[in-house]
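Feature request disguised as a bug: please show the residue count (73) next to Acyl-CoA dehydrogenase in the output. Example input:
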Amino acid sequence: MAKLLGSEIYNRIADKAVQIHGGLGYMKEFPVERYYRDARITKIYEGTSEIQKNIIAAQIHKEYLKKAPPVSI
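Example output, currently without the count:
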């Protein structure tokens, strides 16, 4: 969950920084360009954000099933 949250926030901040700098945000002379590239890789390194969401959901579901009372019909 921490990896997902961290990468999502990092990407939002880097995206806003590029927007603030406009066209200069893509130029290698500015550190914003590096931050943006680094932020993008966090979404795909060690599993994409979508896969991370699936893993988290599966774990939460598994924990719920452990604690849920048995259903009798």
